[in-house]
Amino acid sequence: MQRIRIGVYDSGIGGLTVLKQLLTKIPFGIDFFYFADTARLPYGSKPQEMVRGFISEILSFFRHINVDAIVTACNTTDSLLTEAEKNNLWVPFFSIIDPTIHYLRNNVSDKNSIAIIGTEVTIKRSVYLRKLIIDENISGIFQKACPLFVPLVEEGLSDGELTEWIVTYYLEEIRRISPNYLILGCTHYSYLKTVIEKYLGNGTQIIDPADHVSEKVIEWIGKIETTKKSSVTFYVTGSAEDFKRKASLLLESSDELVVSHVELEKLGEFIHL
To answer: In a 10 Å sphere around its CB, with 0-12 CB exposed, 13-18 middle and 19+ buried, how is residue 151 labelled?
Structure first.
C-alpha cells in the first residue's frame, strides 16, 4: 500500500503546532514533509508580493518532491492566496483559516464578540473579519496586529517578564473589550497561549486554528490500514541545526529529526519546473 505524502509549510517553527496535531491524530501511514522558510521569516511584515513569491517557490518545491496534499500552517500566506489559486493546485490544499471560520459559524451564538490577532499582512488582508462579519450571531469583531510575537517565539521566549510585557502592550485594548473569543491568527502565537490566557482571563475563549485544520486533513485521508508509524522529513532554508534543536523541544521528540537545508538559490529553480 502506497503511503500518503503530505506537505506542511510555515515561515518557521510556528507551524509545528499544526504538525504536532497531525502526528498525534494520524500516527500511522503518513509521510509528512515540513518546510520552514526560516531564512526569510517573519513573513507578516514583508511586502505582500514578495511573500507571494515565497509561496510560489514553496509550492513548486512540494510539487518537485511529489506530495499528495499541502497543508498551510501559515495564516499570512493563506490570507494572500485566492480561492481560485488554492482550488487550481495539482493536489488538495488545506487552508488553516477556513476550518476555523466553519467552527465559529457553527458555535457562535447570542451575539458574541470576536477578536483576531495576527501578523500585519493577515490583519491587513482581514480574511477572518470578512468571512465572519456576515454572521448575525456576531455582535462585533476587533483586529490587532502583533508583529513582535513571531520573533519572541522564534527566540524561545514563550514566557517570562519580557513576553508578559509585550502581550500586555498588544492586548491591553482587547482585554478592555473582553471578547467572547480570540482567534490566534498566526501559528506562532500558539506558543504564547498560556501567557495570553492568563492576561485576558477566563471570559475569553482562545481559538487555535491548528486544532481545526488537522480535523479537515483527517476527513480527507479517511481510514488508514497500516500500523507503520508516520514519518516526518524537515526542510529549512536557514540553519538546520538551529531548527533541529528548537523542533526537538517543541515536538517533545526523542527521535533524531531528519532536517535538510535547502539553499534559497536552489529553491528558486523549482518554480521553473
So the answer is: middle
